[in-house]
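WP5 quarterly update. Target: Hydrogenase expression/formation protein HypE. Source organism: Croceivirga thetidis. Length: 339 aa.
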Amino acid sequence: MPKLDFDVITLGHGSGGLLTNKLLDSGVFDLLSNPILDARHDGAFIELDGKTAFSTDSFLVSPIFFPGGNIGELAVNGTVNDLAMCGAIPKYLSLSFIIEEGLKVSEFWEVLVAVKFACEKAGVHVVTGDTKVVEKGKGDKIFINTSGIGKVHPKANIAASTIKKSDKIIISGQVATHGMAIMSVREGLEFDSEIESDTTNLNHTISGLLDQFGEDIHLLTDPTRGGVATVLKETAQSIKLGIDIFQKDLPINDQVSSACELLGLDPLYVANEGLFIAFVNEAVADKFLSELQKNENGTHAKIIGMVTEEHPGQVILESAIGGKRVVSMLPGEQLPRIC
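Structure tokens (predicted):
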């Protein structure tokens, strides 16, 4: 914990004056120190060459602390992974806080520490940012925005337009884990072991796969809000081809499956934070899967479906007993505030 003479965040900490400087000096600048951030300029001077990817996201998760992580690492991992889905190697992040008056400094510090460790694991630097404080009741403890930039991998050509008939669809791990980690806390569900969020950075995993398979990886996407179903439906509509997926091949933890059943939720629509879906050339799909399963982020990876010329724009799920149904896009908000 930083040594500060206050225990909670007040409106004064967002004034830009003495209290703001105390908070940032003893927290953000000290903990996340690097040569670019230490300049404390209004922006950051960075050097990148070649094709570059840029992404931004905001994180409003409630509760801000959950099994397996907190909003701090979620904010870093979320933007790092968005860049990785572009085939980019993330390098720099911006980090902006909107803090509700009354947040305990100890909680803010815990979030900052999670940001630091997540950045170190992903190999990225926070180089600029902002802090604002809103009146009590006008927020929910803390909201975070992160933006990121990175150089695109030289072998990457990630675009829905490169998807072809017979491409295989591979998911990197078990579905619905993050959403159910949040919901199990909210609903007070108890299981033999705690369901933990799958939030993690995927950039090193993706970079290694691009090294090996390059342009045979046609699309990468992470099934966050809206879950697997929504991502696949969006893709099918975009490419004007059909997608077939098979329920028996969908990896899901037994306790997560039970939690979904108890709450009446379809795991295909539950958000994930440590997964990606890859559309890959059929010719390399088995080798791709084998390599992914050797990685810590892909031990539960499976081929879950394929692209077809039949039923263009539609996703068809074949159930475990052989029936088929159309998978639609999430029509509304199934779960509140889980990312």
